[in-house]
């Protein structure tokens, strides 16, 4: 009996040892797994932190790039790359180029052009005139933009001290000068100046007060042609423009309440003045083309010394 008990106790001891060994190994493996798990968690946290930092940096970089792009765009919108007086933003609205000051190539800068992207009406002008009994008709087109380019120019500060209204370089004036040259050949008359006088004096005389209720409203040459009328300074500006386009040296003579033109010549048909070492013949631009008095100073101004306005 004792022997059986001893065997049972021994078996129980062995079983206890085995159980203890199993428990020990289990706890050991569990602790190891816990440590590995904790390490994995830490690794994941570190990776997540790294990714968060990277994402934050990328997001910050993108924001900085966006701000930079928006700043550059805002700056560009305010720039006037082609120097035509219009910002890039204004060019976009008008449909014009920021690389060309004159997008439609009509000779007018975009900021002064009524139709800067192109278009606009063409005024068809017909001027009937005569020379030595022979009738002529000069026809040409004037772009609406050209007319309004001059029409919109301020003139309230003009004090009749310069020749800004004489526009002999204008392409329309150059065309008229060429037509007059051709008419000179057709008429067999080498006096181009004479034909130019007849052309200008075909314009209707109209005082400024009757034109737009202004006591003084000087017109550019193109305005006078389109309107087909003007007063003494208007026709003087037109005459000087055409004569200069014909390579005739001219000056403007300003009297109290009147303006006339002087053209350089050693052979004058009427009155003349000497100015800057040259002789200038008197030319009245508001008389009838056949009136010989156009070369003579009106009696009311004979004793007046005019103010000379040089045409540059």
Summarize the structure.
By secondary structure, the protein is α+β, with helices and mostly antiparallel strands.
Radius of gyration: 47 Å
- Tally of strands: 9
CATH class label of the largest domain: Alpha Beta
Strand content: 15-25%
Helical content (DSSP H or I, runs of 4+): 40-55%
Largest sheet: 5 strands, antiparallel
Level-2 CATH architecture of the largest domain = Roll
Order of helices and strands: HHEEHHHEHHEHEEEEE
**Shape field:** rod-shaped
Compute the number of helices.
8
User: Any idea how many domains?
Assistant: 3
Average of pLDDT = 83
Q: Which class do the helix and strand fractions yield?
A: alpha+beta
Give the neighbour order of strands across the main sheet.
7-8-6-5-9
Measured between the Cα atoms of the first and last residue, the distance is: 148 Å
Explained architecture:
By secondary structure, this protein is of the alpha+beta class. Helices cover 46% and strands 16% of the residues. The protein has helices at 2-78, 88-94, 144-151, 171-187, 192-200, 208-212, 221-227, 232-245; strands spanning 122-131, 134-143, 204-205, 229-230, 250-255, 258-264, 272-275, 278-283, 307-310. A five-stranded antiparallel beta sheet has the order 7-8-6-5-9. Strands 1-2 form a two-stranded antiparallel ribbon. α4 packs across α5 (192-200) and α7 (221-227) packs across α8. The chain is rod-shaped. The termini are far apart. The relative contact order is 0.07. The model has no long low-confidence stretch (mean pLDDT 83).
């Amino acid at each position: 009996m004792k022997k059986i008990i001893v065997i049972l106790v021994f078996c129980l001891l062995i079983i206890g040892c085995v159980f203890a060994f199993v428990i020990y190994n289990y706890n050991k493996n569990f602790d190891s797994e816990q440590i590995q798990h904790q390490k994995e968690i830490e690794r994941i946290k570190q990776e997540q932190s790294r990714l968060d930092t990277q994402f934050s940096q990328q997001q910050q970089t993108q924001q900085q790039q966006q701000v930079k792009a928006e700043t550059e765009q805002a700056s560009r919108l305010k720039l006037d790359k082609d120097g035509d007086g219009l910002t890039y933003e204004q060019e976009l609205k008008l449909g014009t180029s920021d690389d060309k000051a004159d997008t439609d190539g009509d000779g007018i800068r975009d900021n002064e052009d009524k139709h800067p992207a192109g278009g606009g009406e063409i005024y068809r002008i017909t001027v009937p005139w005569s020379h030595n009994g022979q009738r002529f008709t000069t026809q040409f087109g004037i772009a609406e933009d050209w007319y309004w380019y001059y029409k919109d120019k301020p003139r309230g500060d003009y004090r009749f001290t310069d020749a800004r209204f004489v526009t002999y370089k204008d392409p329309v004036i150059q065309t008229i000068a060429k037509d007059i040259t051709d008419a000179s050949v057709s008429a067999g008359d080498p006096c181009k100046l004479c034909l130019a006088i007849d052309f200008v004096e075909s314009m209707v005389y109209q005082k400024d007060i009757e034109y737009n209720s202004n006591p003084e409203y000087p017109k550019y040459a193109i305005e006078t042609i389109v309107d087909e009328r003007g007063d003494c300074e208007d026709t003087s500006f037109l005459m000087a423009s055409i004569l200069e386009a014909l390579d005739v040296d001219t000056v403007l003579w300003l009297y109290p309440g009147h303006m006339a033109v002087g053209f350089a010549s050693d052979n004058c048909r009427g009155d003349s003045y000497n100015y800057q070492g040259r002789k200038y013949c008197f030319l009245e631009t508001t008389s009838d083309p056949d009136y010989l008095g156009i070369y003579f100073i009106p009696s009311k101004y004979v004793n007046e010394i005019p103010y000379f306005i040089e045409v540059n």
